[in-house]
Structures are given as C-alpha cells and as structure tokens.
Design brief:
Layout lengths: L2 E4 L2 E4 L4 E7 L9 E6 L6 E6 L6 E3 L7 E6 L4 E6 L8 E8 L11 E4 L3 E6 L1
Amino acid sequence: VQLQASGGGLVQAGDSLRLTCAVSGRAFRSSDMGWLRQAPGKEREFVAGINRSGGSTYYADSVKGRFTISRDDAKNTVYLQMNNLKPEDTAVYYCAKPRGGGSLYSTREYIYWGQGTLVTVSS
C-alpha cells in the first residue's frame, strides 16, 4: 500500500485548504482511512477518520465543525477539507491506513503512512 498526500501550503488564519491522499492498491475500497498530524515539538495526533463505506466519519474535538473527511473510491482518494484554519492547525498532515478492527482515534492503529504534507497557518 502506498499513500501520497498533497495540498498543503501556507495560508492565513480563516482560510481553507483541501488535502488529497492518493492510495494505491486494491485494498483501498475495503479499508477505513484516517488523517493525522504532527505539530513541531508535539506528538502525532488523530485528526479525522472515515470508515470503508464512507458512511461514518470521526473527528478530533479540535477540528470538529471545521474539517471534513471524505473519500472517492472510484479515484482511490481520501480528502480532508479544512475550513476556518487556525494557527494551531499548523502541522505536517499524514494520511494513513489502519490495521483494521481497532479505534480510528488511536494513532497506534495506523500501520501505513504517506509522506506528509505541511500546512502552515499564519495569524
């Protein structure tokens, strides 16, 4: 499984960005997926998750109401729409695939990671 994240950049507080994760491999359609992030000097944390059907989504409290995760199985792609960005959202964002059967909220659940894309939000 290979994951390629893109779409990061430098924006101002209040702006929006959409991150894209292209996933290789036929297992994508049967897989839950997640976005996680790591800010400078901090541990990696869960941001958003989506189940294999796309019918259930999960969010960290810090992004709930501002971020939306979605997937397009025809394109083997997962998206993270980020609105009303804040300086505290500055981090490297990773898309990741979990091992399955566990909680998407747990960073330890994820075993396949993309290379990350940097999001910087200025105040």
